[in-house]
Amino acid sequence: MHSLRKIVEELGISLSLFSTQPLWQIAMILQATQAQQLGLRPEYGIDYQLLQAAKQTQKPVIELEGVASQIALLCQLPDNGLALLDDTLTHWHTNARQLQQMMSWWLKMPQQHGDITLPQNV
Q1: What dihedral angle (degrees, nearest 10) is formed by the CA atoms of 113, 116, 120, 121?
Q2: What is the pLDDT of residues 18-54, one digit of tens each?
Q3: Per the record, a Pfam family (predicted)?
Q4: pTM above 0.90, yes or no
Q5: Residue 40 — φ and ψ, nearest 5°?
Q6: pLDDT class for 121, splitting at 50, 70, 90?
Q7: Domain map of the chain by residue range?
Q8: What is the per-residue DSSP string for 47-90?
Q9: What Cα–Cα distance (Å) separates residue 61 from each residue in 45, 55, 58, 109?
């Protein structure tokens, strides 16, 4: 509980917001908040980019693993997702360093200009 309190304070989130949340959801919120505070944005993610490209080219999208199925899996975690929360808290700073490393690799890549084009067989 001490490490949760410390990380929540670090993120500027009120601990009371988590009073009714399952443990897996607390872990997911912490992970997403950490990623956003480090500069990652959902609109730059591969899922969003591919969905936008498919939409622009009027390609149908067949969902393989949607939000509902992901939440159903998370709800089945033993102990309400305690292991996921424990892993998130235990590896908090390591995960931050790894995200920063990954971002530095992306930033070193030459920027590509132009629209995203999907292969014809997609």
Answers
A1: 130
A2: 999 999 999 999 999 999 999 888 888 888 989 999 9
A3: TraB_PrgY_gumN
A4: no
A5: -75, 145
A6: low
A7: 2-108
A8: HHHHHHHHHHTT-----SS-HHHHHHHHHTSGGGGHHHHHHHHH
A9: 17, 8, 9, 29
